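Lab notebook, bench 4. Still working through the backlog of constructs that have no structural model yet. Next entry is a single chain of 306 residues. Request: give me the structure tokens for it.
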Amino acid sequence: MVLINYILVCVIFGTTFLFIKVGIEAGATPILSGGVRFMIAGLLVLGFFAIKKHPVVEALMSKQLMVVGFCITFMTFSTLYWAEQYITSGLAAVLSATGPMMILLIQRQRKEAELDFIKVTGLVIALVGVVCISLPGLGETLSYLWLIGCIVVLIGEIGYGYGSVFSKRYFATEHRFSPFLMNGVQMFYGGVMLILFSFVVEEPSFSSLVANSNAQIALLYLILVGSIGGHGLYYWLISKTNPIFPSTWLYVSPLIAIFVGYLFLQEALSPVMIVGAFLIISGVLLTNRTTLLKLVRNGEMTRSNV
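Model written out:
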């Protein structure tokens, strides 16, 4: 079940960069659209668990989940949505792929993990693969805002790293709430923060979110599939494994986007992309070798551990 859910996370998140870009190009106010996306997704999840008589109010009072919402949802997506106005979705995917490395460095700084040479090598190999896979989308005219956009995404990934490490520590001690309920709470708080931030840094227009069919489709997909489905499974994986294993979706997502485009849109597939795909798969396997071996030994290929 762990490996199946990991594949689902990779597939779901592999399409979200594209839909974020589609929404922005359709005229949606960037950070506002991210805030509405996560707030609505959070409310839908909270409503579901409230109907099921889960302790939703108690979960909403958790300061730890507010911190997770700030780090993972607010920091990661305020920076990503803003930056995708000035950089391509391909470059955004490459910069976001530094997330697993951030997690490893933060764990090392907190003395929660050793800098395993093979694991670091795997992360670097996979990152090189992401660059190869994304090369056609990296060509842009350099500008001041382009540079700021790149730096901003990297700052967001630091927040993503701290949020992922903190989540694992919190999940290890908190057993009252489902990981999916905790995801709903952090999405709600992160979404509210994004909406408030939108009024500070941009001119928000709620009508822009539904101005045309492209904006509507992008928002619905990101709420239902990207946030509720993808982020729920991501937190479940963190609770069952470790922060680095599920975060390697950031390497796999560009690969999925390229091959889906090739299969369904007849987009070009060059030899360097094939090399990149091989590097990504090799790097991810190296990075997660311990986790994968443990899953095989425990029979996780065929059954759930819940």
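Notes after review: Residues 18 and 89 are 6 Å apart (CA to CA). The two ends are 9 Å apart (CA to CA). Flag for follow-up if needed.
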